[in-house]
UniProtKB/TrEMBL annotation:
Domain of life: Bacteria
GO process annotations (BP): riboflavin biosynthetic process
Protein name: Dihydrofolate reductase
Organism for this UniProt entry: Plantibacter flavus
GO molecular function: 5-amino-6-(5-phosphoribosylamino)uracil reductase activity
SUPFAM superfamilies, per the entry: Dihydrofolate reductase-like
Entry-linked InterPro entries: DHFR-like_dom_sf, RibDG_C
Gene3D superfamilies on file: Dihydrofolate Reductase, subunit A
Domain Bacterial bifunctional deaminase-reductase C-terminal intervals: 5-177
Length: 208
């Protein structure tokens, strides 16, 4: 059975909107597009590359797919050649409520039943990664349709923007997979595995 990985870059206050550039997602007047760029360092890059080892499919939301489709097909032979070649050859699955024209090679639109589509992907692939795609991520978190959450937490707060854990996140338990690692710029890389069931509660004053 394959695993669904969610890979996200977020601020300390949980914002994950438009880390890559000013035009990535300016919806709702978001003024901080590209907030990640000044904080990227060599350690970040090595961690991101390592996280792609074994990836054999991408699952993307509509907006992220459009951004990737307009960028990665033109990057082979450039600075990001390795990632470009990987993304261009991988099967790509797009979650969208509207019919889409998918011009990027090896792209397929999922059907309207997302849980059923995710189950089918798990049967077909071993390591499916969701990158960005915040609207899709909200559904995956709410319906427990993921296995691993990979977070890069950057040392800034923005106070506005779309958040990873938005309203409607369901109570869930996670297990840390190995120690957190920190980059020179102060970014903390965390890898969590989802655990079935809801979080336990207790009493700090109970001597037991």
């Amino acid at each position: 059975m394959g695993r669904i990985h969610i890979d996200l870059f977020m601020t300390l206050d949980g914002v994950a909107q438009a880390p890559g550039g000013p035009e990535e997602d300016p919806s709702d007047g978001f003024a901080f597009g590209g907030w990640q760029a000044p904080l990227i360092d060599e350690v970040d890059g090595e961690q991101i590359d390592a996280g792609m080892v074994g990836m054999d499919a991408l699952l993307l939301g509509r907006r992220t797919y459009d951004i990737f489709a307009g960028y990665w097909p033109h990057q082979e032979g450039g600075q990001d050649d390795g990632i470009a070649r990987l993304f261009n050859r991988l099967p790509k699955y797009v979650a969208s409520r509207e019919a889409r024209e998918l011009g990027w090679a090896n792209s397929t639109q999922l059907g309207p039943d997302l849980p059923e589509a995710v189950r089918a992907l798990r049967e077909r692939h071993s390591q499916i990664h969701v990158i960005g795609s915040l609207d899709l991520v909200q559904t995956l978190l709410a319906d427990a349709l993921f296995d691993q959450l990979n977070l890069w937490v950057y040392p800034i707060t923005l106070g506005t923007g779309k958040r990873v854990f938005a309203d409607g996140t369901v109570p869930s338990s996670l297990r840390l997979l190995g120690p957190a690692t920190t980059s020179p710029a102060g970014t903390v890389h965390l890898r969590y595995e989802r655990i079935d069931g809801t979080p336990a509660t207790g009493d700090m004053g109970d001597p037991r």
